[in-house]
Amino acid sequence: MAAADQPKLIVVADAEALAQAAAERVMARIAANPGRIAIGLTGGSGPKKLYQLLGSDAYRGKIPWDRVHWFIGDERFVPENDPLNNMAVARAAFLDRSAPSGHIHPIPTTAENPDASAAAYARELQAFYGAESLDPARPLFDLVLMGAGPDGHTASLFPGYPEIEETGRWVVGVPKANVAPFVPRVSLTLPALASCREMLFEIAGHDKQPILTRLLNGETLPAVRARSNGETVWLVDQAALPEGIRGGR
Ligand SMILES: O=C1O[C@H](COP(=O)(O)O)[C@@H](O)[C@H](O)[C@H]1O
């Protein structure tokens, strides 16, 4: 697989169009792989409409549920049924209704602390992958979904925090968050997230305009440093674009 390329920017009209475009990219990645598929989900506000779409009749019947495994890129260290739990949101929106339970891979939050949870999830990912080190020619994920927080964090990798520099471990405990909710986190690291055929950011809404402006200016924030070893796509809507380029892309 080639070295990480620049992200491809795709601008759509609004949040509905963005969810639709994201759903089509999910389906395209599934169609591209006739074997076992691994998708890394994300939390936060970005993917909620996409998850509703994947749970709708229009998509449910088209997804080969027996071939797709669903992971999560980061988790809040709260019980698995807590509304703040990222995988709980995905489960409620679409997974629980359709995915075999053995194909849903939450980050365990019953471990004694975030580090223990991270170590357990790394073992689970390595067992699934069949190796303890990542082969650049054989990505861990077909697709990884990502968001960008107001401080430029992605997954639970916060600017200036040591976890963003991790190069060895696949998953790390994050003792404290930089933004709400201020609960400890568990996050995949940049190398683990990079091991994918496609990394897809969803950035929508006027609230995201300040951070998208910084990302487009190339500030070395986690959401800019996160790149796929394959294709990286920033899917954004008009409302999130900086004023100067709105309507112009
Ligand atoms: O806390 C988190 O934040 C990021 C960004 O979420 P957003 O709501 O600001 O769009 C998200 O990608 C991550 O999964 C989540 O845990």
TrEMBL record:
Highest taxon, organism lineage: Bacteria
The protein's Enzyme Commission number: 3.1.1.31
Q: Which Gene3D superfamilies match?
A: 3.40.50.1360
Q: Does the keyword Hydrolase apply?
A: yes
| GO BP annotation list | carbohydrate metabolic process; pentose-phosphate shunt
Pathway this chain belongs to: Carbohydrate degradation; pentose phosphate pathway; D-ribulose 5-phosphate from D-glucose 6-phosphate (oxidative stage): step 2/3
Catalyzed reactions per annotation: 6-phospho-D-glucono-1,5-lactone + H2O = 6-phospho-D-gluconate + H(+)
Named from the GO MF annotations, one term is: 6-phosphogluconolactonase activity
> To which protein family does this belong?
Belongs to the glucosamine/galactosamine-6-phosphate isomerase family. 6-phosphogluconolactonase subfamily.
Known function: Hydrolysis of 6-phosphogluconolactone to 6-phosphogluconate.
Q: Which NCBIfam families match?
A: pgl
What protein name applies here? 6-phosphogluconolactonase
Which species does this protein come from?
Bradyrhizobium commune
